[in-house]
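Page 37, top half.
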Amino acid sequence: MSARPRLVSVQVGLPRDVAWNGQAVRTSIFKEPVAGRVRVGCTDLAGNAQVDLDAHGGDDKAVYAYPSEHYPFWAGELPGALLPFGAFGENFTTEGMLETDLAIGDVLRIGSAVLRVTQPRLPCFKLGIRLGTHDAAKRFTASLRPGFYLGVVQEGEVGAGDAIEVVERDPRRLTVTEVFALRVGALDDAQGLRRAALHPWLTAGWREHFRRRLVA
């Protein structure tokens, strides 16, 4: 991670209906940058709302963050695509906070808010709607650049330019990248599966997924 991790941009968005494959799809993946301070509540940001509450939002996934360092990679993968910050549906675009360094359970202070890393992001077809390509979810998975969800430990306010401080490092050191690679089959590690299945800060659905695989 860089010497001075920071919040580069903050995005919010509300549900909208868009046309995809000849059908209307309701989605909140379109996010726009916010000027000034934004309230971080216990389940979401002010001015933001989710459609699929099983996959986004709530106590464990109030905020989705994506590293700005990945944008040059995607510019090469998706030539001609418009990729402003927020293109991956993230609320926070970060600098100096990579999935290879952050571990599940790490606690971050941003502005006056305190947040905990809880899981990677699994993509769905709506990412393809945002990026304008039907294979976006497949590419996203293969890239091993998932971003990370944050649960709120302490509500507060954040704004672009705020420093990101790691105030607590989880001693288990199960990184976001490791968990994602285990989930999508890019890493075959029985011990890693056990660690993930027992990790107290990994979201319940992911723990259960890994438990089922251990007994299969």
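Page 37, bottom half:
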Amino acid sequence: MKSLVAVASKHGSTMEIGERIASILRESELLVDVRPIDQVHSIAAYDSAVIGSGVYMGRWIGDARDFVDEHVSELSRMPVWMFSSGPITDKVDPGDAADGIRLLEAAHGREHRLFAGKLEKDSLGLMERTIVRMVHPVYGDYRPWEEIEAWARSIAKELTAVPA
């Protein structure tokens, strides 16, 4: 079974989540490609997919939304999981999951997860810093690695139970 982990990540922290998921899947002897979503032009070679996107102002990154919309027919014929990353506190807002849930339903996917993200001042552009300053965030890495790894192991368990 060959799996795709495709991620839209503006500053790299969501891609790091995708890479960790791919690593856990590989521990179960699955063949996994992890790619930036804008570099995936075909999913014909894959038997399953995990698709993730950073969330900004409650929305998935446009490339991720476009990818799912473009490949929705193919995705609906394989096991698919999706995740969103981006809330910058240890308390996630369920509203940040809305795009991911909508896209998961369109693709007849199995599960969506919302993970807290990471905010580093040095990685932000001028406009982003201006917007972020209005909400008075505490910079830091809020990604729940144990939860992410447990979720990836549950995906691996499902995929290894399915005949290739």
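Margin note: The two ends are 5 Å apart (CA to CA).
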